[in-house]
Amino acid sequence: MSKEENTIVCRCSDVTLKELRDLIAEGYTDYNEIKRITRIGMGPCQGKTCTQIVLRELSQATGKPVSEIKNQNNRPPVVGVKLKLIAEEAKEDE
Amino acid sequence: MNKKANVVIIGGGISGCSTAYNLAKKGVKDIVVVDKSYISSGATGRCGAGVRMQWGTEMNCKLAKQSIEFYENANEILEYNRDVEFKQGGYLLIASTDTEMEQFAKNVKLQNSLDIPSKILSLEEAKEIVPHLNTEGLTGAAYCPKDGFLNPFKTTDAFYQAAKRMGVEFLTHTEVLEIKTNGKKIEKVVTDQGDIITDTVVNAAGGHSKIICDMVGVDLPVYSERHQILVTEPVEPMQDPMVMSFSLNMYCQQTPEGTFIMGRGDDNEPRDLRTTSSWEFMDEMAKTVTSILPPLGELRVIRQWAGLYNMTPDKQPVYGRVKEIDKFFLSVGFSGHGFMFGPLTGIVISEMILGEEPSIDVSMLGIDRFEKGNLILEPSVV
Ligand SMILES: Cc1cc2nc3c(=O)[nH]c(=O)nc-3n(C[C@H](O)[C@H](O)[C@H](O)COP(=O)(O)OP(=O)(O)OC[C@H]3O[C@@H](n4cnc5c(N)ncnc54)[C@H](O)[C@@H]3O)c2cc1C
Fold first, then answer.
1. Mutate to test the pocket of ligand 1, among B35, B196, B264, B378 (most ligand atoms within 8 A of CB)
2. How far is B106 from chain A (nearest CA, A)?
3. Residue B135 lies in a domain
4. pTM of this prediction?
5. Which domain covers residue B242, as residue numbers?
């Protein structure tokens, strides 16, 4: 394995470039499928770092420009919020 | 694309993938699975993926028990190159009224008669299993160590991979628009990518099952409703079982990665096909979980999402043929617990298609039960 392939592409879920490339080679060319199998983009950063890398790899493998590859849905919340704080605010609103 | 198939399965969730796998294993050729999006894009890839034997009807107990026994060996049976990540940490069901405790006692008696190792626990015993449980306001608990949780994507992927190896064709990003019939016979399935000539169709379209039935004029008494769920940041392992309450309408589980996944039902949810996220859910979920499991208040929520429950009047699935159309099979109406029945769904539907002797009698789950009024209501759902 080349040194580059040991590179961690998703720091939240510990996914290497090799794992990503292997999955693409197996035929997983949908961002959402890759996300679901590896948890890329599911961690606390919500894909802020890894999404671009995955899109670039998919683009190279499929020959489609990055703009044509369907990205993951951005889901709330944008930054992590403690459950306790949400509960307290919700009670105050009552 | 114009092709022929012996069987077309509509839906690439756990039900469709398990059915494809079982049919292929029985030697059926030319099976096509069609999904309008990607594999696991429906409820399967959005679900809590909890599996439990602790049910209130005999049928649900049996389906769940046999499915869980399959899941225990899924990696080997499906020869999977990854791991379905089965964590068999049990389910702790908590009761907050005496009536609920009476129901638990009835359920446990039924479950034990079917060799399910569940038992009633005192609040002290419950706290031994989940030390951070706030027992204030609770009346007791029930527990089964065989229950647990899997990775829903990988579990479905395992069926998908095994089916693909046996020659099943998967057409993703392909939407079924119409089913053409001639009298009672199916002639072809029309998709946005072309036609598939076939006389046999399985409706495994999850939340969209009614739309598929409408295509062939079958009146399916189900509706869909949104259910929401969230995940927290990961922490050290601290909770083995799923903690679930029917009266408080919630469940909460720590995954093997350390994250907590939790969801709740909302009685005011409209019947439609939305899968958007709401603030109300986040507020109510946070209030409920911090009162039952207080230390979880320290955890940050990192993502929330939603999926569809496909509900039947008695909260049990619909399996089998319809009287209007030949060779049209239903695998729908899972009412929020179709992931855990996945292995058995594939077995029963494939046996029905091939006219084999059923390995488990599910005739009471046919669509005709609604007409006849033979409903046995499942009491234990969130
Ligand atoms: C928040 C939440 C939590 C849940 N928790 C649990 C749990 O803990 N345990 C449990 O057992 N169950 C749980 N469930 C229920 C479970 O997810 C479902 O019962 C199960 O996944 C249903 O699987 P399925 O394959 O039948 O349907 P789905 O997974 O919904 O698959 C149906 C597929 O059909 C496709 N489709 C629909 N219409 C068309 C069309 N016209 N053409 C082509 N394709 C089409 C869709 O794209 C979809 O992929 C939960 C559900 C939700 C929403």
1. B35
2. 35
3. yes
4. 0.95
5. 88-146+227-307
